[in-house]
Design goal:
12 helices; alpha/beta; globular; eight-stranded mixed beta sheet; about 40% helix
């Protein structure tokens, strides 16, 4: 398989979305939406594996993340605008895409299709996110993201130490090349996360509960998902607990589910082979290439 094609989507005069695409653009599209503080590289080999199986996989950096544009105002990071970005990207692809969204990306996907008057997708896959999530898990994520947000890291090893402390279940990588893709080195020689600090300041200032705890709205959107729906839970997740998973399946009976044992909230990064296998199996059933 060749290297991915680097593409861009122009949203408006301020925001340009950077993406990479694997496979044949004429094939059925699958859009991969990463979580908050991540980049398009967080999917590991999933996009490439999807392309090898016959789909057209597009992974993009959300606004304010990776190589996509950073907004000038904090309010430009509202989830509503991320939903708008997704719809504009989907409209530029051939056919109705499948949405695979992790955490923030999953909420974006759920609201985009669940609150839309038209069915513009073929399926939705939620990766360790549900209409209700465990607040303790969210607080741990925010603590990790904000800890080195301003001062950055002296080197890659220091950043790797921070990640290892946050995810002690994951073996420390032998090479830091993948971690480096999530960081940017500035003129002061230090490494900083590849996302705009205004995102975190906006989330904290506007109170994360506004979206994360608005379970009524989220469940309404989930129940409006008339397309095939899958929720993939990390077996060790502290964000989507077994109780949260059971509650979701009870309230959204049309959804299918799968647990990836040994994985935490970052399912694709923790157990990429098992995650990709579960996604491909579901797509072969509901959206064959």
């Amino acid at each position: 398989m060749n290297n991915p094609a680097l593409i861009q989507f122009t949203i408006d005069n301020e925001i340009t979305i950077a993406a990479e695409a694997w496979g044949n653009p004429q094939a059925k599209p699958v859009i991969l939406l990463h979580g908050g503080g991540q980049t398009r590289h967080s999917w590991g080999e999933t996009a490439q594996l999807l392309a090898e199986q016959g789909w057209y996989a597009v992974a993009y950096d959300a606004r304010g993340h990776g190589k996509s544009s950073w907004a000038t105002k904090e309010e430009s990071y509202d989830l509503a605008l991320m939903v708008q970005d997704l719809k504009m990207i989907a409209a530029q692809l051939k056919g109705k895409p499948v949405l695979v969204g992790a955490s923030m990306g999953g909420l974006t996907a759920m609201l985009a299709q669940g609150e839309s008057d038209e069915v513009f997708t073929s399926a939705v896959i939620l990766v360790d996110v549900a209409p209700r999530i465990e607040q303790k898990g969210v607080e741990r994520i925010f603590k990790f993201m904000s800890a080195n947000m301003e001062q950055g890291f002296a080197n890659l090893d220091e950043a790797a130490d921070a990640v290892a402390a946050y995810m002690p279940h994951r073996p420390r990588p032998k090479t830091l090349s993948r971690l480096e893709k999530n960081l940017r080195k500035k003129e002061d020689g230090r490494y900083y996360w590849h996302w705009d600090p205004k995102i975190m300041r906006h989330w904290m200032r506007t109170n994360p509960d506004k979206v994360l705890k608005d379970t009524q709205r989220m469940y309404a959107a989930a129940n409006q998902l008339s397309v095939p729906t899958l929720i993939v839970r990390g077996g060790m997740s502290d964000v989507v607990s077994e109780q949260v998973m059971a509650e979701f399946l009870d309230k959204v009976p049309h959804a299918q589910s799968v647990d990836v044992s040994g994985a935490g909230h970052m399912v694709a990064g923790d157990s990429n082979h098992a995650f990709s296998k579960a996604v491909i199996q579901f797509l072969n059933d509901v959206y064959p290439a």
